[in-house]
Design brief:
Its main location: membrane. One of its GO terms (biological process) is mitochondrial electron transport, cytochrome c to oxygen. The chain crosses the membrane at residues 12-34, 41-60, 80-108, 120-137, 143-162, 174-198, 218-240, 252-274. The protein has one domain (74-273): Up-down Bundle (Four Helix Bundle (Hemerythrin (Met), subunit A)). It has a two-stranded antiparallel ribbon with strand order 1-2. It has helices spanning 2-38, 44-64, 66-70, 75-109, 111-116, 140-164, 168-194, 204-237, 245-273; strands spanning 122-127, 130-135. The protein contains 9 helices and 2 strands; from the N terminus they run αααααββαααα.
Length: 279
């Protein structure tokens, strides 16, 4: 009787994972395509969004009917899930490389103007007629966000280790910390937008700042949603998580996406905040 219940519970967990983790990746793909569609004035973007939606729905139905009925819930599904996330990360990396390359071109074109003025890292102090200068980062919110993301990247590596060693209590706690810190990052980013003394229409560089940081903030929000979905699975069915290849593949995929968000933020800080783009 116990063995029967265990098998039934395992099958139910497999079905649940198939219905949630691929759907989360499908949502991320749809958001990415929607952003590209809104940024374009052509109908091709909307057509691409429709094609991706229909293809994802057909794949989702296949996963929940044909594959489950035939028992195709094994390492192949887990490998496919990781590979699909790798493709998503590569496409998103291409998107951010193009955006950051535009930022570099703008900085090069305005090189003569930002040499004349000090950047955000340069601080000049005049005391009793004595002028001293030095490097000082004046944007505390950016430092907070950078520290938060880098710390969550370290915690995500520890989460993978805890899950592999079946210490589920630590896994639950660390996932909770990562979700909270990711939410704090989004809140701090919103606070930064509120306290800026310019808007998107102030200048071309201001619009580029909003676009670059806004798209990255959207990816952080998607990552928090993926982590939250996996955290719910850990809380509800944590007994089978470290034994199911589909679950482990989903966790590795989400952690890979989160590391990608961390690396992109480092590039955004170096090119956007440490230069005079937002002055």
């Amino acid at each position: 009787m116990v063995l029967t219940n265990l098998i039934a519970s395992t099958v139910y967990i497999n079905v649940l994972c198939v219905t949630t983790l691929p759907v989360s990746i499908m949502v991320a793909l749809l958001v990415h395509t929607l952003v590209n569609s809104l940024a374009s004035y052509y109908y091709d973007g909307v057509l691409t969004l429709l094609v991706v939606t229909m293809t994802s729905l057909l794949g989702w139905c296949k996963e929940n009917t044909v594959d489950h009925r035939l028992g195709v819930n094994n390492n192949t599904n887990s490998t496919s899930l990781v590979l699909s996330m790798v493709l998503v990360v590569l496409s998103e990396a291409a998107l951010f490389v193009s955006i950051l390359w535009v930022v570099v071109l703008v900085l090069v074109s305005t090189h003569s103007s930002y040499i004349e003025y000090p950047s955000l890292l340069y601080n000049i102090i005049i005391t009793y007629g004595t002028t001293t200068s030095g490097v000082h980062f004046q944007n505390a919110l950016t430092i907070i966000n950078t520290d938060l993301l880098l710390f969550t990247g370290v915690l995500s590596v520890v989460v993978v280790h805890c899950n592999s060693t079946s210490t589920m209590l630590y896994t639950h706690s660390l996932f909770t910390y990562i979700i909270i810190l990711g939410g704090v990052f989004v809140v701090v980013q919103c606070c930064e937008y509120v306290h800026l003394y310019w808007n998107m229409f102030s200048a071309g560089t201001a619009m580029m700042f909003y676009v670059t940081t806004g798209i990255h903030g959207t990816h952080v929000l998607i990552g928090v949603m993926l982590l939250t979905g996996y955290w719910v699975q850990l809380i509800a069915w944590g007994l089978y998580n470290n034994h199911d290849t589909m679950i482990v593949g989903g966790m590795v995929s989400i952690i890979l996406y989160w590391h990608f968000v961390d690396c992109i933020w480092v590039g955004v800080v170096c090119l956007v905040y440490w230069t005079q783009l937002i002055m």
